[in-house]
Amino acid sequence: MHEKSPVLSAKARDRVGTRYADRVRKAGGMPINLYGKGHTPIAASVDAHEFLAHVNKGEKIFRVNLDGVMKDQVVLLTGIQFDWMGNNPVHADLARVALTDRVKTRVPLHLIGEAAGLKQAGAILLHPTNELEVECVVTEIPDFIEVNIGTLDVGHAITVSEVKLPSGSIKVLTDKNHIVAQIVIQQETVVAEATAATAGPAEPEVLTAKKPAEGEAAAGAKPAAGKDAKAPAAPKK
User: CATH 2.170.120.20 residue ranges in the chain?
Assistant: First the structure.
């Protein structure tokens, strides 16, 4: 696998900091940090267009050439930082690894097949978990993991624990109970939401009025029908 990994030509960065990183980006470069066990981190840069083209294809493993420092060094993409709007990549971290190292990374999930439940009117497919965090040997990192949803029916779901892995040595770190794919009826959801909206909130109880004591009539209350109110005492002569 590593023999087919893209090769990146890196240049060392003599100066670091926001101002100098901006200069690198304006010149068409992507600031990167190269680090690894037993190695001092190296600030470098690569061609931004070339690097991002590989990343957008799902590449995670690269071979880096840096004059006088490393040649065909296998590295793993561990993180990309974006600008404050979250749109443009501005920095990347790459870790030096050996081909026998076990590493942690994220692998995208690809749903294949046509779910049986989608033939029912109003059925929609939910795909809340679209990648898995895994731990495996560098040479066994898959580009993606396929999940067959052909037999998935309405009211059923596929969880992480049911995903078939391409290798038995791959360890899944994502919660096994997370839902990968599920078929639900959209109409039921809409009706339930509409019912809740039209029901309206319950009338609140007014707590500011003083409640009458036991045996005492409320102010302004009339005596019950068929019963005479107690007449006032006659004045003494």
Answer: 100-197
Strands, E assignment, the chain: 7-12, 29-36, 39-47, 61-66, 70-82, 89-96, 102-112, 123-126, 131-137, 145-148, 157-159, 171-172, 179-185
Q: How many helices (H) and strands (E) does the chain have?
A: 3, 13
Tens digits of residue pLDDT in 35-84:
987 788 999 999 999 999 999 988 899 999 998 788 989 999 999 999 88
100-197 fold: RNA Polymerase Alpha Subunit; Chain A, domain 2 (2.170.120)
| Average pLDDT taken over every residue of the chain | 83
Cβ–Cβ under 8 Å, residues 106 and 134: yes
The CA-atom distances, in angstroms, between 53 and each of 24, 121, 157 are 18, 40, 34
